[in-house]
Amino acid sequence: MSQLSETKPASTVGATPGRRFEPVAAFKRALLSAVIAFGLFSLMIGLRTVSGPTGALLLEGRPELLAVLVGLTFVGALAREFILGERDVNLQRFVPAGLIARSSAVARLVGPALFVFAVLVPIVFYHNRYMLDLGTMVLTYVMLGWGLNIVVGLAGLLDLGYVAFYAVGAYSYALLAKNFGLSFWLCLPLAGILASFWGILLGFPVLRLRGDYLAIVTMAFGEIIRLVLLNWQSVTRGPDGISGVPRPTFFGLPFTNSDGGFASTFGLDYSPTHRIVFLYYLILALAIVTNLVTIRLRRLPIGRAWEALREDEIACRSLGINTTNTKLTAFAMGAMFAGFAGSFFATRQGFISPESFTFTESALVLAIVVLGGMGSQSGVAIAAAVMLGGFELFREFAQFRMLIFGLAMVAIMVWRPRGLVATRTPSIFLRKRKPVDAALVEEARQ
Amino acid sequence: MDYFLQQLINGVTLGAIYGLIAIGYTMVYGIIGMINFAHGDIFMVGAFIALIAFLALVAIGVTAVPLALLLVLLIAMALTSLYGWTVEWFAYRPLRKSFRLAPLISAIGMSIALENYVQIAQGARVKSIPPLISGGYTLTKSGGFAVQLSNVQILVVLTTVVLMVVFTWIVAHTRLGRDMRACEQDLKMASLLGVDVDRTIAYTFIIGAALAAVAGVMYLLYYGVIDFYIGFVAGVKAFTAAVLGGIGSLPGAMLGGLLIGLIETLWSAYFSIEYKDVAAFSILVIVLIFLPTGILGRPEVEKV
To answer: What's the pTM value of the predicted model, to 2 decimals?
Structure first.
């Protein structure tokens, strides 16, 4: 297995690495880049369509912006030529090989450290509503990422419609709680069961598909479920969504300022923060359960079957593994956790609509799993924090963040296709448990 | 019957547009075996470039419709191919030797990036232009219902047929076409025999993007309304068309496009317009599961 050639971009073939910097040729190439940039941006950015007074579209020139962009491209291309010569950009050298160093001592500490930090967040930031909300959101995505990790990272089935199960969980809770008055704690398992039922239902037809066809079909299923939610007005109220979803209770005690509420029962002063903190710990507990279940499952026969399936489906079948059951359980387990997360989402927001379950959401969860390093639990947690934290940091540039998100997905694939945590710990080992390079693991190959 | 005939005409027009986009999917899949998820957004970019070019031409005083149309078509094809080439160079070429799903994930990122790029550059609001080509023919008229064949519809179908002929000729009779067919059969072997694989793939993306741009111009002429989100659904439908026709097959892409166009139009006409996208997605699922090689495709042999 030639790992070197795998990490090197293909376009280096034929180029002499490390050739000397030649000013004239470099200048010409930079000029060409600038011309291409001008072609790309001339109409799209140089001109802007605006509605005129009569409602007809008019054009507005933006020559300065166009000039700046083309100039930047030229300077950037020249700098790239100057620094790298003929070599291709290989950021592999600048990014440490695995965010977590290969020394397993450090790696073993990262998980517990993250856990302790997560537990302490509400205590440290008790008076900071913003941090609590952000933490809750990050944990929701950590949980979704871990759930999707079962399907993508362990079983190697690329699922682009994962958010559909999240939607099933959210709508199950909202409808059951509003129409039948069931409590959150009763609805939670029901939502999980319903979501995993849908996972099996959608899993059945795609059993025979492989690779990107499977990905496209799951995407189509995700969109179908969203469109049905949007159009089935009599049940889901369509685009208006369902509002007034019941809030969670502390095992029956509501978080209200009344007798019999949470605060008065425990003799505390009423504070709206109680509910926020409770929600935070609730999603933390759910996420931890997801993580523990996944870690245990990996060591059970079914988990080993998943990983074997990821590596080589034909070999699996030859060895007598029932690939049908193996795939369906992976879909069902992943979907179940998405269902749990969905019902948590519904009770936290109090309002759900199909808007929250678009394809972009699926892509976001997938990006978290991919960035974290498919199959790595701590990597997914770090990736979720990095990605959502990044979104919050650049809040002022809200309109640019999806653009950057898309470009970042490309950049991850180009520079770190194995994710932040580029090592995997095998569940079976001969003498000593030691991490192996992720390039040796065939994620989502078939 | 008249109603059906009218829907048939509308369906064929729509199908021609889908077919043009589907060619881009089918060529790329045939050669490098990846789903170019961003191709639908390339189509959307083409439609926007056409819109802006049209407004710019009006602003500088080019108002003769045939001339303006030709110029818009050429500008859109040229600039959109540049986008196609750039996307390939930026997002796919470095991944040629990466793990198998890396290009797909990268393509999803590119699709999101393109959508938001257009949204930022041109605004999220729906853009509409007055109809450029009006008039048409009334084919039959019985009772209260007249079957119309508009000039735009004739133009769309004619342009598509001409482009298909030109494109088929390129693939069958030019050096580039031969290289493309060689790459489709065996990428490694083709490169050993002196075919510049990277260049051939780049040209494939350029041609696919140019055809998508034409589809974008046609879409703009036919509907007169575009926004930054049209690429996703149109892309899914065109991809369905490519798979239905048999992925990797050019006549298949056209045939699939026509079928998808007809199914969508007839579904909207006789069942429910709200669920027309559900129908499109369901067809995609059904085709992929039960007919993964399509109508004109070759079955894929699995080797260990």
So the answer is: 0.84
